[in-house]
Amino acid sequence: MLTGAGIATSTVRLDLGEALPPVHELGGLVVLGGPMGVHDGDAFAWLAPERDLLRDAVTLDLPVLGVCLGAQQLAAALGAEVTTGPVEEVGPGQVELTGAGRIDPVFGPEYHGLSGTSVPCVHWHRDTFALPAGSAHLAATRTFPHQAFRVGRRVYGLQFHVEVDAALAERWRPLLPDGVTVSAADVARVEDTGRRLLRRFVDVSTSTVPDPASAQDTGADPATTDAGVAS
Fold first, then answer.
1. Which of 34, 37, 74, 161 falls 20 to 30 Å from 46 in CA-CA distance?
2. Domain annotation covers residue 8
3. How buried is residue 112: exposed, middle or buried, by Cβ count under 10 Å (0-12/13-18/19+)?
4. How far is the C-alpha of 21 from the C-alpha of 14, rounded, in Å?
5. Looking at the 3D structure of the chain, how many domains does it have?
6. Any idea what the CATH number is for the domain that residue 196 is in?
7. What is the Cα–Cα distance from 104 to 138, expressed in whole angstroms?
8. What is the DSSP track for 77-124?
9. 12 lies in a domain?
10. pLDDT tens for each residue of 80-129
């Protein structure tokens, strides 16, 4: 989606010891997943500096997308608690949009005012996060109510995966827990929806015109609000 929009990207592999870029060199930040957790800083020393970079990027009003561990890192960087959930949530599934999610500029247009509110995705986590103060709560599942949030206009945290295509699914296949499968049909559903969501995220991130939904929505959901890198 970024390449298609004419945006140059670079990838930093923190797990291979590559250095984080200075925040002033970034036009935006995408932080992806991994098997480690936010609180594993003793084993993975790059986790804390990554949170610092996320916090700085949000402060500078850069577009930010955190996915899975990236969403947990983003939540922690903004002062929210990250904890271990009751069970693992792994495999193909969906999330349900909240009221704020249905009017969100990235998630809301998906159903064009129709009654559907579910977004197909792939889950792969056990940790979860509280919502950062002032954020909009966008999506939930019954087991893990906090699945997505937005801060301001263009900072998003997604606990689930919508970036899965056939190539990524094939690389994941031997790593999935026993008994968990992601079929070609599952991948097709997620990729079809995910491409539209991610395209809208890029559109929102590069637009200088405030989105009408964002102008009406201050970002907070009063009923639910708790007190990899690319440039």
1. 161
2. no
3. exposed
4. 11
5. 1
6. 3.40.50.880
7. 8
8. HTT--EEEEEEEEEEEEEEEE-HHHHT-TTTGGGGTT-S--EEEEEEE
9. no
10. 999 999 999 999 999 999 999 999 999 998 876 556 789 999 999 999 99
